[in-house]
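REQUEST ID: PR-0412
SUBMITTED BY: lab tech R.K.
PRIORITY: routine
TASK: structure prediction, single protein chain
INPUT:
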Amino acid sequence: MRKRLSILVDAYLSFIEDDGWAIASHIALTTLMSMFPFLIFLTALAGFFGSKDLADQAAGILLETWPEQVARPIASEIHNVLTQSRGGLVTVGAVLALYFSSSGVEAIRIGLNRAYGVRDQRGWWLLRLESVAYVLVGALALLALAFLVVLGPLIWQTIVTNFPGLAPLAVAVTTARYIITALLLTGSLIIAHKWLPAEKNGIRQILPGICLTVVLSIVFAVAFAAYLAQFARNYVTTYAGIASVMIALVFLYSLAAIFVFGGELNAAICRDRRRRGPSAGS
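STATUS: complete
OUTPUT:
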C-alpha cells in the first residue's frame, strides 16, 4: 500500500513539474477546435460512401458517454454543421478539415511525450502526416461502427420477429451500445499510449494508466453531470451566452488532465521498476 501511494505521489509531482495542467488546457482547447473540422471531414467521407446520415450517427457515438448538459448544446451545433450542404470528398475544404482535425492528435502526442519524458526527433511534417493518417483511420472506423449501430436494431428486429421469446433482452441490447462506446474509448487510449509517444511501450507498461483514465473519466462524468443538474445556472450567470462553451471546455479540460495523469502514472511505475531492478517484474 505504501509503495502504491509513493507511486501516485511521484506521478502527481511529475504531473505538476511537467506543467500537466497547462498541457491539459492545450489538449482540451485543441480537441474542441478540432472536433468540428473532424465532423466536416466525416460528413464528406460518409457522403462519398453514399450515406451522410452515418456522420450524424457517428457524432452521436462520440457524445454517448458525455453528460447530457455538456452533450446537448454541442450536439445541436454539430447537427447544424452536418446538415450544411458541402461538396464531395476530394475538395479543398475536406482536405483542410482533415488537416486541422489532426491538431487534436498532435496535442495528445505532446501531452504523452511530456508525461513519458521523451522527445520526438522526427520532423514536424512527418508527425503531422502520421496524425492525419490516425484521423483518417479513426474516421473510417467510426463510420464502420456507426453503420453497425444503425444496422444493429434492424437485425435485432428481424431476430425478435422470428424468435419472440428474445424480446425481453432488448434492454441488454441497448446496454451493449454503451459497452461498445466504452470499448471504443479504451481502444483509443491503447492506440494513443502505445503508438503516439516517441518511446514505444508494451501493453503491460501502459495498462495501469489506461485503466485509471477510464475509471476516473467515468466517475468524473457522473459527478459532473450531477453537479450540472444542480448548479448549471452558475455557469449561465457567470458566462452568459457562452456558458455552454465553457461547460464543454471545463469538461474536456478535466478529462485531459485525467488522461495526462494516466501517462504520468505509467512513467512513475516504470521509474519505480527501474529503481527496484530486474526483480521488480517477478
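NOTES: The chain has one domain: 2-276.
REVIEWED BY: pending
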